[in-house]
Design goal:
Layout: H1 4-18, E1 23-28, H2 33-44, H3 58-62, E2 73-80, E3 94-95, H4 104-123, E4 128-131, H5 139-145, E5 150-151, E6 157-158, E7 166-173, H6 192-196, E8 202-204, E9 207-208, H7 214-220, E10 236-238, H8 242-245, H9 265-269, H10 272-276, H11 280-286, H12 296-311
Parallel strand pairs: 3-10
Antiparallel strand pairs: 1-2, 2-7, 4-7, 5-6, 8-9
Length: 312
């Protein structure tokens, strides 16, 4: 006869799939021993650039029990965002696929809350917190630990069945659940992501110098974009998908079914000249519910002007 942890674990996974999550894996909530040293070295090398928040809450990043008191399990989930329709790059600036539509933080958090509410109706109250790329959670480490996928050379989590175009989310809770096993690394000798990166941001297997990454320059960086990026941006005005686009495992990506992730019509119709004439009013209208609003109008305008200099 199945024990309670097994019954709960099976129930959570079945519900996760019903709520539209691609994958669901479980880990024991404990200190991430292997990640502690790696994170320390990464920060010492200043690979986080101006992302000073990465230096905060070092212990909390590595121990979920400090985020959710009494937590016993970390439930990792993945949610597909691969678009059905790609925005044309012809005479256009590029935007990362994850930012085509509504802000995933809110969309997925709402789904998670509904999922947990349904779980509590069936198994009773339990303590939990939900996370979607929020708070100091090492989401890739937990997803890897839970067997959802492996960390590729580009430091993205990759899954054999569906590649890497998905968001990660976590439910950290005090339920005793059955932990899953890690999966094998299937990158082999492939170097496509390393060779394709125009800024040499992937410094070695699984280690990315964030300060050299186009996504960092166009989203995280608040100051002027350094000259280092001149003529290397390949028309990316927000984010960058190069290392994912070239990954052989992403040939298995299939379009997401989430209506809220459909591209905004303006994004589908705009061309370079339209972007160059972007106003604050239009920015607010197009990106009202989008992750792009994080750069603010001034940040996106800065990116567009920087790209324009390469064209002169």
């Amino acid at each position: 006869m199945n024990s309670t942890p097994e019954i709960y674990s099976q129930l959570i996974k079945a519900k996760a799939h019903r709520f539209g999550f691609q994958n669901c894996g479980i880990s024991k909530a404990e200190f991430l021993e292997d990640d502690a040293k790696n994170l320390e070295i990464w920060l010492k090398n200043n690979y986080h650039g101006e992302m000073k928040y990465m230096e905060n809450h070092f212990d909390k990043r590595l121990d979920p029990r400090l985020l959710v008191e009494g937590s016993k399990s970390v439930i990792s989930l993945s949610y597909n965002y691969f678009p059905e329709e790609k925005i044309s790059s012809l005479e256009n600036f590029k935007i990362s696929k994850y930012a085509y539509a509504e802000d995933y933080h809110e969309v997925i958090k709402d789904i998670l809350r509904d999922l947990v509410a349904e779980l509590q109706e069936e198994i009773g109250e339990f303590s939990f917190r939900v996370f979607v790329d929020s708070a100091p959670v090492m989401e890739r480490s937990w997803a890897k630990k839970s067997g959802i996928g492996w960390v590729g050379k580009n430091a993205n989590l990759i899954t054999k069945q569906s590649g890497s175009f998905y968001f990660l989310a976590e439910i950290i809770c005090d339920l005793e659940l059955v932990a899953d096993h890690e999966t094998k690394d299937h990158c082999g000798t492939c170097r496509k992501c390393i060779d394709a990166c125009p800024t040499n941001a992937i410094v070695s297997d699984k280690i990315v110098d964030g300060s050299k990454c186009i996504s960092y320059a166009t989203i995280e960086l608040k100051n002027e974009i350094p000259d280092y990026f001149q003529d290397k941006m390949e028309d990316w005005m927000f984010g960058c998908d190069i290392c994912q686009d070239v990954c052989p495992w992403n040939r298995f990506s299939s379009p997401n079914l989430q209506q809220k992730f459909k591209p905004n019509n303006s994004l589908l119709n705009f061309k370079k000249n339209d972007w160059k004439e972007l106003t604050q009013e239009l920015f607010s209208e197009i990106f009202r519910k989008s992750p792009v609003k994080r750069t603010k109008f001034a940040g996106l305008k800065r990116n567009i002007e920087f790209l324009g200099r390469s064209e002169e």
